[in-house]
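User: I'm writing a tutorial on reading structure tokens. Could you give me a worked example: one chain, its sequence, then its tokens, then a sentence or two explaining what the tokens reveal?
Assistant: Sure. Here is the example chain.
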Amino acid sequence: MSSLKEKIRQMERDEIVHALQECEWVMARASRRLGITERMISYKMMKYGIRREVKADGSRQQ
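And here are its predicted structure tokens:
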């Protein structure tokens, strides 16, 4: 069974990824959508290991 802290971390990570995908990975737009600063979304992306993957053909994954 997951702890409450772990559930909250996963929920926060999922919301950040979802906002980034909806905003085409533009951090400024995603941060406004989430009501946080660009600096905070950048920090949380590093914290949770969130990054946009690159496909084998060189294009970016959505």
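What the tokens reveal: Residues 19-51 form one domain. The chain has a mean pLDDT of 90.
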